[in-house]
Amino acid sequence: TFFCIFAAALTEPLVSSEPPPAVESGKPSVSLMHDSTDIFQPQILGAYVLADSTPVSLKLPAHAPYLLIGGGTASFAAARSIRARDPGAKVLIVTDEPDLPYMRPPLSKELWFSDDPAVTDTLRFKQWNGKERSIYFQPPSFYIRPEDLDGAENGGVAVLNNRKVVYMDVRGNKVKLDDDTEISYDKCLIATGGIPRNLQLIERAGEEVMKRTTLFRKIEDFKSLDKVSRNVKSVTIIGGGFLGSELACALGRRSTESGLEVIQMFPEKGNMGKVLPEYLSNWTTEKVKKEGVKVLTEALVKSVTCKDDQLEIKLKDGRVVTTDHIVAAVGLEPNVDLAKSAGLEVDSDFGGYRVNAELQARSNIWVAGDAACFYDIRLGRRRVEHHDHAVVSGRLAGENMTGASKPYWHQSMFWSDLGPDVGYEAIGIVDSSLPTVGVFAKATAKDTPKAATEMSGTGIRSESETEDTAVSPVASDTPSPAAENKDDFGKGVIFYLRDKVVVGIILWNVFNRMPIARKIIKDGEEHADLNEVAKLFNIHED
Ligand SMILES: *[C@@H]1O[C@H](CO)[C@@H](O)[C@H](O)[C@H]1NC(C)=O
Ligand SMILES: CC(=O)N[C@H]1CO[C@H](CO)[C@@H](O)[C@@H]1O
Q: Which residue windows are transmembrane per the record (predicted)?
């Protein structure tokens, strides 16, 4: 069956592209990942119950050599790279979420396509290669308990759940938690991610509207939207970016089974209009419509009201939509709550904590993931909200925290699929407001995401690429490429330009060539003829 996944990210590099951790558990972690009987339930480590059932408070460590604030992907990636470079390291992750670190992308894609009716409990999903895994990076046995951190001979990673860091004393190298506990540190990472935005007019529309609105980010949001979508007749997604389009397609597929009406509305002219040039955005919109989604483009919401248990959405151009539930997928607000007490600068253009190319904010303090506004030595100041960026920035911060002085230059990438037949990979600044040059060729049956993963034998396409694999590409002698047919975007390369220099590249149904794209961006040269550059990707070859 055709299905449509906008995958904003790689979902696996943390487990399969690196060796399993050496000491933390008796079994190698890889075998645990594929053990079909284990279900990685979150552990709540904030309190535990003794045999006589008297709840006691934990004796938390007063000091953590490595303190990581936030329990998401960037934090977990940092913990891993710290442990890899400093095998005895004691790492404490403090997170206000109740869960152990997990990956977010499957919450808006693979989990929706699971055949398992219990998927909201198991949180396991099938990768492209058919193998199943949990969204949790590691099972509970990987971690040690916070109260055991002090005495752990080989160190380890501990997660303190349901606690929030509310204050940083930078001079004293310590933080205060929401229950007034103080923990001192040697090195600290802030990886606090962000909070989904809402439309102000929904926030102001009152409790009845808010009750029928989902902001999507966490495991709980997946569970509640799953439930809502089984109990209502109509869901409207506001937002045309990755998250909105992913969820529209996921729910759209359900519409064919259950008669659920799925509406998606956004101000742009087409899906992913902020990323794709207009002709491709238009083409993508048609794909989404075929998934059973009623797409309303150029839709600006004027008001939302609740009447007789239904929501009425009025648009500025007079259109009116009646629906049961709203999903607002209108972006992320980076969480910079600690800026004031920590004396950290928040970037006024991009939001997030300003850090240098090594992701350092101040001495002993680093920032990674969605909350970091970093200096990209190639492309300038940026903030990136993709999973792969959380992985590479967390890893880099961890390396720098353990003493490697390594500037951030590894461009994170992301990929997105429109089902098994169409997919793309992107790197750098892909912003449709930049001038673009697209070079297309006819696709063959081999040029599909499914074929690409089957050939590589992995669940994901670019998993093997690392910063070391950038090869010198060889230009092919094929004739000058040009779009043979304007409507046939079979496969191709789209260049995004700033001051005549390529700052972003989308590989459209062209797979396993990301190292070439990476090198072009790294070189940062002006190119007189991008058709010549496109030849490096050999799109006419096979
Ligand atoms: C995209 O679609 C809109 C209609 O929704 C149309 O006005 C516009 O011309 C299309 N653009 C391109 C480049 O095909
Ligand atoms: C601990 C460590 O190696 N830190 C380095 C991180 O990167 C900066 C460069 O900005 C170096 O000055 C630090 O020594």
A: none
Tell which atom from ligand 1 comes closest to the C-alpha of 297.
Answer: 5
pLDDT score at 413: 85
135-165 CB burial, b ≥16 within 10 A, e <16: bbbbbbebbbbbbebeeeeebbbbbbbbbbb
Residue 304: both structure tokens together = 């939302």
Whole-number pLDDT of residue 117: 87
Low-confidence ranges of the chain (pLDDT < 70): 1-58, 128, 405-409, 417-422, 443-488, 541-542
For residues 235 and 249, give the distance between their C-alpha atoms in angstroms, rounded to a whole number: 12
Nearest C-alpha to atom 3 of ligand 2 is from which residue?
Answer: 403
Strands 182-190 and 174-177: antiparallel
Cβ 400 under 6 angstroms from ligand 2: yes
Q: What pLDDT sits at residue 58?
A: 60
In the chain the domains, ranked by start, together with CATH numbers, are 12-195+334-341 (3.50.50.60), 199-330 (3.50.50.60), 413-537 (3.30.390.30)
Which residue matches tokens 């808010």?
210
pLDDT for the residue numbered 22: 35
Please indicate whether residue 283, judged by its CB atom, sits closer than 6 Å to ligand 1.
no
> 């083409």: which residue's tokens?
283
